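Field: sequence (string)
Field: structure_tokens (string)

Example rows 1 and 2, in order.
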Amino acid sequence: MVGKQLRSKLQREKQAENMAEEAKVAFVFPGQGSQNVGMGRDLHSSYSAAKEVFNEADAALGFPISHLCFEGPEEELMKTNNVQPAVLVTSLACLRAVQQSNSQLPLPSFVAGHSLGEYTALVAANALSLVDALLLVRERGRLMYEAGEKNPGGMLAIIGLDTGTIEDICLQSGTDISNINCPGQTVISGSIEALAKSKTLAKTKGARGLVPLKVSGAFHSYLMEPIISEFSEIISNFAFHPPAIPVIANVSARPLNDVDSIREELVRQLRSCIQWQHCVEYMIHNGVTAFCEIGPGVVLSNLIKRISPGAQILNVSGVDSVAQLGNLAVSN
């Protein structure tokens, strides 16, 4: 009997060791909406690698995006063509600071980003250079802003309704589902009139909350269709490389494996739904037990908690949190 109990204990310990060996970490990068005046300033002061990222960004863009991140003014930072490169450069400064401070940093098994954050993920996976990413998202932001000027619209987060119910609302109101973020939180996009109708319908169907997003247009919807052709032409002039780390695509929630699939994803992403919940579920299904959000804010960390309450979640947004990645008890 004692021998049997001992064998059982050893088997359990072996299973635990195997699970630890199979555990994986994913790095995830935030998108527009996570910004704040002051982001990255402490990293710039404390880490030479982060300072180099900001200096490179200032030179590439031809104006001090670093000053806009550190000092604002907020109304300038919030402009779509400014905020997209600002969030990207701050996220990459966070990543470089972590890499500088922790030589034992585990390599991620996957990287992913939410909307704009997908570009940051591509840089992290060595599929796109920092300079090209900055120039590309600057153009992306310009086109998205212009689309919003020509066809005014917005985005609305609906809390507490299932996807099927929201699909019905979209059919009735003429809106599109633009983000599936986590269970119980879906974002729709459309014209001002269509969103007003959607609010009424959602209240009728029992939505627990309705939160308008602070954006300049109906992103990831049919109202972005007019800019697809120009953006496709722009993106054809940029160099991409096969990812060194699997990048989970926003649109398909599957890995991007080659240059053609990356180009196609970035164009489709402009007017397609961001499948963030399914991206996270894919990574979990493939062994990820720990997520580290790298960049300003905690938006993705909060969403992942809703998707997978048992996952280990860390957030790196400044000097105080850089050392946290040393606590990741995972392997690849």
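Row 2 begins here:
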Amino acid sequence: MSETNSIPVVIETGFGAIFIEVYPALAPVTAANFMQYVDEDRFTDACFYRVVRMDNQPNDAIKIEVIQGGLKSDDHAERLPAILHETTAQTGLLHQNGAVSMARLNPGSACSEFFICINDQPELDFGGQRNPDGMGFAAFGKVTQGMDVVREIQAHPHEGQQLVKDVKMKVRRVEG
């Protein structure tokens, strides 16, 4: 999927770069939130810290595969207020391989934490069964290059779903 007015962003890690496109026309609230973190350098301390794999979800009936990152702390000084939940039914952006989406507990609680889907994850879409509320998660972008880096991060040593060593990231707009 390529939206004509997408915003190119790069997430630089020690394992390589992950290039994404953010879709403000399709997910205006969620995209604006993410880009505010990027443009105001609020992701200075950000990292990937959680990996969800088929083998580390023993209590989940619906299994998914993602890596999650962001500020990691609910009381981080750079954290912005929670945003309105935009469902995949509203945006049309599905949780397919490489989708970038906001993490949340309840609808309307997403702030700084985001995840990248590994393989298609339809149970994260509106009506999906990963969350009991059925509201799904708010996808707002897609990886255009660097899924090999995403998979490498997912394969790193972890305890439960937490990486043994966080993967620091630098997030910025791609100019030019």
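free_text_note (row 2): The radius of gyration is 15 Å.
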